[in-house]
Amino acid sequence: MTKTPIWRSIADSLRGEIADGHYEKGARLPTEMALAERFGVNRHTVRHALASLIDEGLLHARRGSGTFVLSKPLDYPLSDRVRFHQNLLAAGRMPDKKVLSVELRACSDDDARRLKLKTGDQIAVYHALSFADGTPVALVESRFPETRLPGLACALEEGGGVTKALEKIGVSDYVRSSTRLTATKATPTQALHLRVQEGAPLLLTQSLSKDTDGRPVEYGQTWFASERITLTLDHVSH
Amino acid sequence: MTKTPIWRSIADSLRGEIADGHYEKGARLPTEMALAERFGVNRHTVRHALASLIDEGLLHARRGSGTFVLSKPLDYPLSDRVRFHQNLLAAGRMPDKKVLSVELRACSDDDARRLKLKTGDQIAVYHALSFADGTPVALVESRFPETRLPGLACALEEGGGVTKALEKIGVSDYVRSSTRLTATKATPTQALHLRVQEGAPLLLTQSLSKDTDGRPVEYGQTWFASERITLTLDHVSH
DNA sequence: AGCTACTATACAACTAGACATATCATACAG
DNA sequence: CTGTATGATATGTCTAGTTGTATAGTAGCT
User: Fold this and answer.
1) Cys-Cys crosslink for B23: which of A132, A188, B27, B238, Cβ 3.0 to 4.6 Å?
2) Closest in B100, B189, B198 to A1, CB measured
3) CA B109, B111, B117, B123 torsion: positive or negative?
């Protein structure tokens, strides 16, 4: 009946508390014995949970000393100028991005409407995985107008992120014109990439970015592992 | 002629021995292997018998640990002066309380509102498990204003219950000012502590207690194993 | 043939305890 | 003040025992 192992539910509890900021960065967790008592299990079961969190890069254990929190809860500011690398560096985290695939294909009606193209125009579809301190935090799917921005597919494949790729082909600046926010449940594939449980809650942002001339350059969907990230919104006066 | 299955006769034997007081409340039964040898059957046949007794609510099994005898349902009076030890002694049951953890942390907005504190004031978070005759019946999570009641965390850690800890630091009396009642499903961790099935129904009381001067001293949530306890309410005239 | 009760075996998940080893704080001698 | 010894405490490792689950097989009945 209990199809989720105990150690996993304990790991989830602790991961949640860390994400909620119950423990500062660098803080020591309660001892394995204390956690075992709190959760009402054997020390070894707690160790199993801790081991998985250590494997995720959230914790670090030192024999004789204790188990320590490596990462702090990540606040990811949403503004009209969202830059993954800069955001994470500003938060004191080590950003990384892994390109999963770059495809060229003819765009659908929806794509055409969003990117102001004609149906059938070629677009580049970009899939990538974003990391903070080695832990996956977001899954990205972006569409770019390849016909208007030739060479982008190659630039994207080289890695280094979207901003750098756009720079390479002459788009020096771009801003978000709209962002939609919803919550979804992780599909098996997403869960695998983001290292969360299947069905875990994800934050989905759908955004359209335009260059300085107002031409759409990117329609992107990003799934954030909500247990590891909090999207923040600064309500500035216009 | 309908022959009674072996497992049923084994279940009957064990049920009789439990009823005869052969095993203490909360005591551990012999292992499945030992019972299988005693009755001269395969371990799975014993398991079938045990499963039926577990289904009846007489026993509870814990992987890696053993199979335990549970005590019978209990009536628990809810009033403006709820004292666990006294309530259980009055019901002729042996009360016990196990402190799971005591943590100090900064309070959230909700905590501040309930305890009339400022956001960020320090509170003591107390987790404990209540037993009746060796059977867990309730899981307690209470928050206390540590700033207003210094030393409470230490007093709580010594065990002996909330009432005694509050006495120790000078709060001689306190009463409930409000109680909210809802039903929830047991999370994996809660199920472990209370020795019920994951997803089993729990009674959740959320209560605020104040001292004689009307200052909040405790905001507590208590999850009762509803299969073992009935909350009773006496409507007295004021 | 299909159903039921039971047996047999193997492995996974969790508990229990003992012991090894690293770290830290403290006390004490030089 | 320094260095060392010691004890308490923390994580790391190992062995063994218990319940949970899955698969397969056997005997007896309808």
Assistant:
1) B27
2) B198
3) negative
